[in-house]
Amino acid sequence: MNPLLKKIKERDALPPLPEIVQRINKKMKDPECAAQDVAMLTLSDPVLVGRIIKANVSKEKSNWSFTDLKQSIASLECDEIKEMVYSKAVLNLFDNVSKFDPHNFWRHSLSVAFYSQSLANIKGLDAEDQSLAYVAGLFHDIGIMLFIYLVPGIYETLLSKIADDQTPKKERKLSIQEENAFGISHPKLGAAYIKEWWTKNTTILEAVQNHHQTSSIVSKLSTTTRIVHIANRYSNSQSIMNGIMVFKEPFKDETFEMLSLTKKQKSTFKEMASAHLTSVN
Ligand SMILES: [Fe+2]
Questions:
Q1: Closest to 215 measured CA to CA, from 252, 185, 166, 189
Q2: Are residues 79 and 205 both part of a single domain?
Q3: CA 57 to ligand 1 centroid distance, Å
Q4: From ligand 1's centre to the CA of 210, what distance in Å?
Q5: CA of 79 relative to ligand 1 center, distance in Å
Q6: Does residue 190 contact residue 140 with C-beta atoms inside 8 Å?
């Protein structure tokens, strides 16, 4: 077995995804789930509470009561709460990682999550499948964080090689370098980690594991996998990258064909993406 795969199976090698992610995920699957339900889960976490107050309230108030807090949460959309919960939960896993810009990484992950959910919505998927697309998009690159966590020195050398202009262009692809150096790429490592510690949901696992496959392979896989693949490429084309990629890949409109989007659906997506881009810049 690949030594890194073996490593992530060791109970003490890595922390499991925090319980709050699992609880929120379960809650989101409940058709009766309201923003309030998700919000109440966050009240158990003081850092999250602080974020919510900071994100939503700019009143000059020094003392916060529980009622103030509940009102503050009540005014947030479910997605905003989810983003805060996931971002805090995931970034907490890698608190001790230096030489890595979590901001860019997180911005990219959130954008891919947002685009994935938007595409799922445009394709008419139901609420649960939209939620799966969001989560798969959010965690698609978690394998990169695992490399940084498990083998920071070697991975940094690999990143330097990719960033070096002297390296032949075909060798500057992250997944190829990872395969060469470790015998496994971040999509596979990420999927293995999620499967080991969080969920065996095949929709999420397939999407994470195949997000860098070629279009011809991806077009034969599930709708969610195609969605996350497109969302990732679209995000990169808008320069919302994970902080590691060195090439700004052009996005060809034909890529949408693997989802059979109509002209109207494509323009709806582009409008949503453009509004999102404005909001994150
Ligand atoms: Fe990736």
A1: 252
A2: no
A3: 35
A4: 9
A5: 23
A6: yes
